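In this supplementary section we document a worked example of the pipeline. Step one takes a protein sequence of length 404 as its only input; no multiple sequence alignment statistics are reported here. Step two produces a three-dimensional model, which step three serialises into structure tokens for compact storage. The input and output of this example are shown verbatim.
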Amino acid sequence: MRSWSTARRRFRNGVLATFAILLASLTSLSTWADTRDQAKRIYDRIAGVPPDEATITAMADLLDNGNQTDAVAAAMMATEADEFYTVTLKNFAAPWTNRDQSVFVPLNDYTATVVGMVRDNYDFREILRADVICVGRNTSPGYSRTSNAHYEALERSGASLKDELDCTTPQSSLTGVPATATAGVMTTRAAAKAFFIDGTNRAMFRFTLMNHMCNDLEQVKDVTRVPDRIRQDVSRSPGGDSRLFLNGCIGCHSGMDPLAGAYAYYDYAYDVDADPDGESGQIVYTDGAVASKYFNNDNNFEHGFITTDDSWLNYWRDGQNALLGWNTSLPASGNGAKSMGWELSNSDAFAQCQVEKVFENVCLHPVEDDADRAQITSMVSSFRANNYNLKQVYAESALYCKGL
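The serialised model returned by step three reads:
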């Protein structure tokens, strides 16, 4: 009886041991499969296509190491995919290049320059300051000051933007804008066609604010700022009621007009009769000569500010818009679009904006809860610590949204 009990106990123990080994194997297999699923999801979110077997295995191996450094390295592998540049980044930047904020526009020098700067690990703040433009290496016809044909041909060719873009030729040598007056994407032909055409050049400021600081004018409206730089074309009594100006117009113009003075020497020239849509126009910079559009409707209020140069002032350093987080180590004034662009891109709002846009692009939803907000805060700090490298933001966003 005792031997039978012993045998039964040994059998039971053997079964339990075998079951434990099997369970451990299944657990290991489950973890391995989950890691591969996460790697695939990360790659999909960044590149928009599934990874090949070698890539998914390499990414999963890095994720298995269980540390943040290797996890980021795994996600960064997805930023090497052609599709990340040709599809993800191209569609990410395209809405910034037109007033309708549509993604359905041809490739242009603005979009291509964003793609190339991200590929080349530029400090992303330079997007509003650098003397840089990206063109096709072997694309015919070549870059033109009066046509977008070069970029449309590049897009039709189906060439990889990762391989084909060349960002080594200074923007100033192609566009005719002096190096000291270049301001990254703001002084590309596409930006000029969209935002310097006609009008009063305020559109360039408004859309730069929207695209790169994630605020429209209504959100930064502050009626407490000094109105001394508001131009003559703004009526102080619209419809005969000065209250409309004091409670409305002044809120946007008192901050915008002093900053938009930086664009005083820029215009987009085209033949309005032969080419009413400006398809054959070009950006024009006339050093020392304020564009005539700055004097449009100067009889609306003749005592308003008269623009005499390209100086700018940031009145939003004080008041409610101090919350945009301006860099106080920089002067709050200057001349030209280059220095004004640097003022904007060194703000907290600029860094926060880029991170939130990438987060939504990768995670497919806006910031929704405390966990999302904590992640945004972490990624903003990382963005700065990594020299404003946008690929880092894509990698960290994809890791956050990879699933458990």
